[in-house]
């Protein structure tokens, strides 16, 4: 859950200083400690730095995040105040969402999350689609009802990766019930 909170902080920011007073640090998210609010990032120069996000309001996070979540390994840009080192803004390029395919358009997929919220992502020629980690698939291989894990660009809502479970939720239950009836 704290990953989701961090993602919102990253999207919203709390800019309280001018651009000249901020330093942008780019790196890879390594660890999130939900108890302390500490977030560890390995910066592009190879150093590791820990930032604290305990002063973030949950409602601000919910409004900015929507259905996005953030995972270890995601690329982030943290903007800190040069004077006091306080985090002023955090940007994230990509986020992840898990759920079930609700509908398919001509170039988009709508996913219903476990929280019963819908996220619509554009499927482009750059989107990597995989079925059960075994093979690359085409957009036309997707079906309503399939379980899906999606990675997407937060600013454009373009799907970067779609990892699909070939079995549908409803079909799994029905098949298991039919198998039990036969036994």
Specify Rg, calculated over alpha carbons: 19 Å
Structural domain count: 2
The spatial strand order of the largest sheet comes to: 8-7-6-11-12-9-10
Largest beta sheet, briefly?
Answer: 7 strands, mixed
CATH topology of the largest domain: OB fold (Dihydrolipoamide Acetyltransferase, E2P)
Describe it for me?
With 183 residues, the chain is of the alpha+beta class. It folds into 2 domains: 2-92, Copper binding periplasmic protein CusF (OB fold (Dihydrolipoamide Acetyltransferase, E2P), Beta Barrel), CATH 2.40.50; 95-173, Nucleic acid-binding proteins (OB fold (Dihydrolipoamide Acetyltransferase, E2P)). Helix content is 18%, strand content 45%. The chain contains 3 helices and 12 strands, in the order αβββαβββββββββα. The strands form 2 sheets. It has a 7-stranded mixed beta sheet. A 5-stranded antiparallel beta sheet has the order 3-2-1-4-5, with helices on one face. Helix 1 crosses helix 2 (58-65). The protein is elongated, with a radius of gyration of 19 Å. Mean pLDDT is 74; it is low at 1-15, 60-65 and 170-183.
Based on the model shown, name its key terms.
elongated; 7-stranded mixed sheet; single chain; disordered N terminus; disordered C terminus; OB fold (Dihydrolipoamide Acetyltransferase, E2P); 2 domains
List the helices and strands and how they pair.
Blueprint (H helix, E strand, L loop, with lengths): L1 H11 L9 E12 L4 E6 L4 E5 L5 H8 L9 E7 L5 E6 L1 E11 L3 E6 L4 E5 L5 E4 L3 E2 L9 E8 L5 E10 H14 L1
Parallel strand pairs: 9-12
Antiparallel strand pairs: 1-2, 1-4, 2-3, 4-5, 6-7, 6-11, 7-8, 9-10, 11-12
Helix pairs in contact: 1-2
